[in-house]
Amino acid sequence: MAKPNIAPQPAGLDGRIYCDYSRLVRLQSQINTFSLLPHLKAGSVLSGRHNSLFRGRGLNFEELRHYQLGDDIRNLDWKVTLRTGKPHVRSYTEEKDRNVIICVDQRSQMFFSSTQVMKSVIAAEIAAMCGWRVLKDGDRIGVVIASTDKIYHSKSQRSQHAFMAQLKLLAKANQQLNVDSTNSDKVSFSLWLEQLKRMNLSQSTLVFITDWRDCEEQHLDLLKQFQMHNDVLAVMVNDPLEQTLPDELAKSNWVVGDGQYQLTLDSQEKIASASASLAEQSLLTRQSLTRLMALKSLPFIELDTSGSHISQFQRLVGRQ
Fold first, then answer.
1. Angle in degrees, 0-180, between the axes of helices 189-198 and 217-229, rounded to the nearest 10
2. Residue 312 — φ and ψ, nearest 5°?
3. Which phi and psi (to 5°) does residue 274 adopt?
């Protein structure tokens, strides 16, 4: 007799600090208000069970139009051509399976929040929602997880069982984070992108969920190369304290650090300088990612740590 499908039980963790496997599974119920639709045009087809803009000998007639140089002569509509005296072709749409890779950041810098929810929790939950949406659409899903010590990647499959195994790995990486976590040399943003480059991706959708703090100009150049033959969707997880320092700093001395270095903010000049530096870096990153998304008319998704990241994501992606 087959065993009943029993839903995983919560692990009793504080959901603002850590995510557990059961929470990632239950996020299936939050996926009906958005869709990760394909955007690639004719000649580079996104996979997925959706009507693509691929011009081919598919099953669904799309339009009758004048012949253009380079059109397949097998698509000529001879009756219309003879009747009008001008060559006409019939074009079609095809269904293509979509390959979606979700790249989710669970490195040490993601274990941070000055408000409600850790950036690492937000990234994990959004990754789970995207994965469940892809499976609901009947497409193939793969996950690349950047943890503090290793980059994990899985083969894209149209399998709920395989995806749930990846969610277990994602929850484990999330729960290993703590205030003493440090990243190894094996998980830099450069190596993360190199891992994706070795996968020889084409006609796929790549969803990056990270804070983009260590994304540099050369990384953006490589992402542009990915964008030429794929769709790259950037999701930035931001905390207010990473964009501007609070006014309360002026009333007392603060010491800030990154685990290696410390800076004492004990004067108005230091506070103003640090705040301006944060604002400038955040603005430059946003502008670069916005330009990258514009290449394919994709939205740039920015989420904060206020605890409303699910509704924010549903609204911003649903708007496309």
1. 20
2. -60, -45
3. -65, -40
The tokens for 260 are 């290696």
How far is Cα of residue 63 from the mean position of the Cα atoms in its chain?
34
C-alpha atoms less than 13 angstroms from C-alpha of 64 in its C-beta half-sphere: 10
Separation CA 101–CA 199 (nearest Å): 11
Q: How far is CA 231 from CA 12, 38, 45, 64, 319, in A?
A: 37, 8, 10, 29, 17
Exposed / middle / buried, residue 45 (Cβ in 10 Å: 0-12, 13-18, 19+): buried
**Cross-strand pairs, 312:** none
Write the DSSP assignment of 154-172 as a string of letters: ---BS-HHHHHHHHHHHHH
Residue 264's DSSP bridge partners are: 255
Distances (CA, A) of 77 to 56, 73, 89, 284: 15, 9, 5, 52
Q: Residue 210 corresponds to which tokens in the numbers above? A: 């990270």
Per-residue pLDDT of the chain (320 residues; tens, 9 = 90+): 444 445 565 667 899 999 999 999 999 999 988 887 554 343 333 334 444 433 333 345 667 888 888 788 888 999 999 999 999 988 765 556 678 999 999 999 999 998 999 999 999 999 999 999 999 988 899 999 999 999 999 889 999 999 999 999 999 999 999 988 999 999 999 999 999 999 988 888 999 999 998 888 899 999 999 988 888 999 999 998 887 776 666 566 777 766 667 777 767 777 777 777 777 777 888 888 888 888 877 888 999 999 999 999 998 887 54
pTM: 0.77
CA angle 288, 242, 267 (to 5 degrees): 125
